[in-house]
Amino acid sequence: DAGITQSPRYKITETGRQVTLMCHQTWSHSYMFWYRQDLGHGLRLIYYSAAADITDKGEVPDGYVVSRSKTENFPLTLESATRSQTSVYFCASSDLRTVSYEQYFGPGTRLTVT
Amino acid sequence: GESVGLHLPTLSVQEGDNSIINCAYSNSASDYFIWYKQESGKGPQFIIDIRSNMDKRQGQRVTVLLNKTVKHLSLQIAATQPGDSAVYFCAEKNTGFQKLVFGTGTRLLVSP
Fold first, then answer.
1. B75 in contact with chain A, both atoms CB, cutoff 8 A
2. Is there a contact between A101 and B49 if contact means CB atoms under 8 Å apart?
3. Tens digit of pLDDT at every position of chain B (112 positions)
4. Which of A74, A79, A81, B27 could connect to A113 by a Cys-Cys bridge, CB 3.0–4.6 Å?
5. Which of A37, A42, A45 comes nearest B103 by C-beta?
6. Is the Cβ pair B45, A105 closer than 8 Å?
């Protein structure tokens, strides 16, 4: 049972480059989420998706793009990376079929923009 | 680990003590609350949740208390162990939404 995976786990990129962070879940959960985690800010929602082809902005969407062509994948793209996007990124999923709103988190991707 | 930092409130306890981690939430319309544990270098893990129509819920060694009057949530950990050392986050969900809003976290340090 693979659960929810993220790749790469670590990434160093240069300012201005495009970078895509991958997220894959094997549970067929309908909802998927992208968060960034920075010192002093906890987890902040970037984008989320209620189903394939349905996405919506979260608290801090600027500079990010998402897509969800398949239920199991939810890639996050930084179109032109900036140093302020240096962070740890977490993907999560949740299942509408249960009575809980628990989100299941991936292991995270540490991104450094130089 | 990369998930914690200098600005987090910290609770230091001795092994075997009971720990209480507090959280103030902001939205009186929130109908669901959840606690997560995050160990260094890992993603958050579910601990326990509670709905707004309850004021207490117990799990294994953990209890969550909800006081809607003062918009306060607490996580009690009984007989704290070194393996409980982590950052603990509370989160709230607003009625009608699937999104969670996370607090900034509290670091729990357990000394043997």
1. no
2. yes
3. 333 334 689 999 999 999 999 999 988 889 999 999 999 999 999 999 999 999 999 999 999 999 999 999 999 999 999 999 999 999 999 877 788 999 989 999 999 9
4. A81
5. A42
6. yes
